[in-house]
Amino acid sequence: MSGPRLEVDAPESFAGKARYTLETLLGACAAPAAAVVRYGGDGGLHASEQAWRYFEAGEHTPPRLGDAGMLDFGDGRSDLVASAFWHLSRWEERAGSARDEHGRFPAAAALADPARPAVDALLREFRAHVGDTGRTPFTVALTHDVDIPWRWSRPRALLGAAARARGAARARHPRAAAAEVLGLAAAPVRHLRGTDPNWSYERIAAIERGHGGRSTYFVMAGHHVAADGPDPAAYDRLRPAIVAQIAAQGDEVGLHPSYTASERPDRIAEERARLEQLTGAAVAGMRFHYLRHEAHSALPAVDRLGFAYDSSQGYGDAIGLRAGFSFPYRPYDLAHDRPLDLVELPLAVMDATLAEERYLGLTPAAGLERTLGLLEHVADVGGTVAVLWHTDRFSREYARGWDRVYERVLEWVGGRGGRLVTAAEAVAG
Q: Which structural domain range is residue 321 located in?
């Protein structure tokens, strides 16, 4: 069944942007009753000529953020479509915007609070305008990044753990210090049994199957700098077993491109080919290591490589929706003034953001509360988002309670009527 017909009364410089935005918002509606959706002109959604001039001039000064995600482009007129486009296109992330130590656009520099998604607020008004009376299914994609597959792969790893234990004690972080001490104490037994704290696939699968879910694991296939991990040889040796284990569990394998790959599309292609030799099938999706990428150059490159989806659009320093939208959507290529074919699966929550002192540094109880608060919003709007728990967050020694947080999140989603699926299933609808 076709959706409403679009009628756009806007200058050519903005008409394509308006159509993209309307199509994106309609994609988050279940059953719009309107036969025609108009933007601009008599009887249409209100338009701002000042907003049109803003985008045509390529303005860098951000508009003023008003209530419910609406932006004021300087004339005091409400323009739902222009406001939504500004957020969805990641206009504020263009060249010259703020970056953190990893070259990432941080939540601290964002105009809107990602925990109060701006486009979702605009969507509520849009749904009322088009008479949407249906309900979209609340969906959470379960995802895991495989950064360090084997903690005790080198003798120096023990020295590093001891140093971290001393550092945590000096910094008065008793939970972190206790985890390192427990890990060191268990290391000899692990060695004798041939097990490792980071090899947690069976435990993760047991938790997820207990709640009717499956997940996607983003696996690395290249190491070029220290940030890619401490033991490239161990990763190369273990990668076939990792892929085989994930496949045996019936879960999805995605690519986790290396730290510098966002600037080197050739590396993304090489790493995907290396991974596909093991999977024996096309790898459909990816997530950049450290979430490190420039949205306006890296995502178009990923699109040209033929990936079906990406799930890198999250923040390291905050949980929430980076584009202000709790639904998969097509990123906009500003350089070529068109949407990509690639689908972006929004990353809502990452365990490291919640737990690590360099980010929020929350206790598990506080992290669970913060996570469920955000997911309550996603459930209420009927959204589809991803959550990320790294594979090193599930062992008895090092979980520090975050494995139980993950299980509580899955239990809550099920109780809220949500689906627990792989990333590929989430973008497929």
A: 139-153+196-428
